[in-house]
């Protein structure tokens, strides 16, 4: 059994920051669960264009607010505490921070391996390691 506390991750190599996001990677590929599990903070007013071509991601909001634009349909969905979105079609999307910082719990399949940040398309590169 592993016990992971987010306060022990802040300021370590498992905390990764990019424009408009901070990700605390509580479980990574090397933790052997078959998915990675992150707490992500999206500051109020942020705008992120994302497209996880190589991953599926489920995102559950536990605090704050924002919106997500599904670029395939043109629909925008409100995100508040209790909302989950699942990018089951590798959906191209724009994530908008709202009036308060959003606290999101995110799971990636396949798992993120470490300190991935988005490429110019908003993707994390695929894991090409053998193990
Ligand atoms: C919601 C989202 O995809 N934000 C970008 C960061 C990502 N969730 C991560 O934790 O690596």
From TrEMBL:
The pathway is: Amine and polyamine biosynthesis; ectoine biosynthesis; L-ectoine from L-aspartate 4-semialdehyde: step 3/3
> Which is one Pfam family of this protein?
Ectoine_synth
Annotated function: Catalyzes the circularization of gamma-N-acetyl-alpha,gamma-diaminobutyric acid (ADABA) to ectoine (1,4,5,6-tetrahydro-2-methyl-4-pyrimidine carboxylic acid), which is an excellent osmoprotectant.
UniProt keyword annotation of Lyase present = yes
The entry's protein name is L-ectoine synthase
Q: SUPFAM superfamilies, from UniProt?
A: RmlC-like cupins (SSF51182)
Q: Which keywords belong to this entry? A: Lyase
Gene designation per UniProt: ectC
EC top class, in one word?
Answer: lyase
> Origin organism of this chain?
Marinobacter excellens LAMA 842
| BP terms from Gene Ontology | ectoine biosynthetic process
User: EC number(s) for this protein?
Assistant: 4.2.1.108
Question: Could you cite one Gene Ontology molecular function of this protein?
Answer: ectoine synthase activity
- The answer on whether this UniProt entry bears the keyword Cytoplasm reads no
Reaction(s) the record says it catalyses: (2S)-4-acetamido-2-aminobutanoate = L-ectoine + H2O
The UniProt family comment states: Belongs to the ectoine synthase family.
């Amino acid at each position: 059994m592993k016990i992971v506390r987010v306060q022990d991750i802040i300021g370590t190599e498992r905390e990764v920051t990019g424009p408009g996001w901070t990700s605390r990677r509580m479980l990574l590929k090397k933790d052997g669960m078959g998915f990675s599990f992150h707490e992500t903070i999206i500051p109020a007013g942020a705008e992120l264009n994302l497209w996880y071509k190589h991953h599926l991601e489920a995102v559950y909001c536990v605090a704050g607010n924002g919106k997500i634009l599904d670029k395939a349909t043109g629909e925008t969905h409100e995100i508040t505490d209790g909302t989950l979105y699942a990018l089951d079609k590798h959906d191209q999307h724009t994530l908008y921070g709202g009036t308060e910082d959003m606290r999101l719990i995110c799971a990636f399949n396949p798992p993120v391996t470490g300190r991935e940040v988005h490429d110019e398309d908003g993707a994390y590169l695929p894991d090409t390691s053998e193990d």
